[in-house]
Amino acid sequence: MDIMPLADVIVTKTRIYQGRLQYRRWNETKGCWVDPYWIDV
Question: How far is CA 12 from CA 8, 35, 36, 40, in A?
């Protein structure tokens, strides 16, 4: 039996907060945020 490492699945979440478009990355594999805070676009 072979072991195959798989890359984490990262999704970008967006929102509009106080009139500003922001994004944050979510790690679907581990179930946690990649970025510690929302980033303005």
Answer: 13, 10, 13, 13
The helix (run of H) or strand (run of E) holding residue 17 is strand 10-17
Residue 14 sits at φ, ψ, to 5 deg, of: -125, 160
CB distance 27 to 9 below 8 Å: yes
Could you tell me if 39 and 16 are in contact, meaning their C-beta atoms sit under 8 angstroms apart?
no
**Residue located via tokens 């195959």:** 4
User: For the whole prediction, is pTM greater than 0.90?
Assistant: no
Q: What is the pLDDT of residues 5-41, one digit of tens each?
A: 788 999 999 999 999 999 999 999 999 999 999 999 9
